[in-house]
UniProtKB/TrEMBL annotation:
One of its GO terms (biological process) is response to antibiotic. Signal peptide: none annotated. Residues 16-178 form the N-acetyltransferase domain. Acyltransferase required for the direct transfer of medium- to long-chain fatty acyl moieties from a carrier protein (MbtL) on to the epsilon-amino group of lysine residue in the mycobactin core. It holds the Pfam family Acetyltransf_8. PROSITE patterns: GNAT. This is Lysine N-acyltransferase MbtK. One of its GO terms (molecular function) is N-acyltransferase activity. Pathway: Siderophore biosynthesis. SUPFAM superfamilies: Acyl-CoA N-acyltransferases (Nat).
Amino acid sequence: MSVEFEVYDETIKRTIGFRKARLDDVELVHNWMNEDHVHPFWQLNFSFERFKEHYLHALSDTHQTLYLGMVDGVVMSYWEAYWVKGDILEKSYTPKTYDQGIHLLIGEKEYLGLGYALPLLRTMVRFQFQHPATAKVVAEPDIRNEKMIHIFERCGFTPISPIQLPDKEAMLMFCERSDFEKRWKDEYKEAGL
């Protein structure tokens, strides 16, 4: 199990890490997609066979990378980091070449409501900003998902406008590198970044 990015988060006193998702993770991710706190927003609560086709397509899509997020080595969340260029979202604003976007879910219910969402999101955005040409990370949470919009705002994302995507009405949100680094400069220092 090769960890792509890992930091110790002082706010939760836990190590947060991300590894690339693999084909053998499909059952786990499928189970998460069928959880009551996930399927209203992801709408991927398909049969296993249909979801596996979707997952295989996502794994082979070169404009995105799928990750599993971990807390102290325990896999508990699913992430899609993508280049906005080549994504349906590029029609919603004028993206720069290296703008990245993010989708996420906490799959394991015992991690819900315990303050993990913000540290996990902050770590993934920090990971995305490791690409030196990326100056903006974009999110488009379902407009009904007020909790997640609030977490994005706390992380440093600014709501731009509601947008209509094929599968949902979303809130377009931007996180600029300079704002993110100013907001979390102390955490960067503690993590040695």
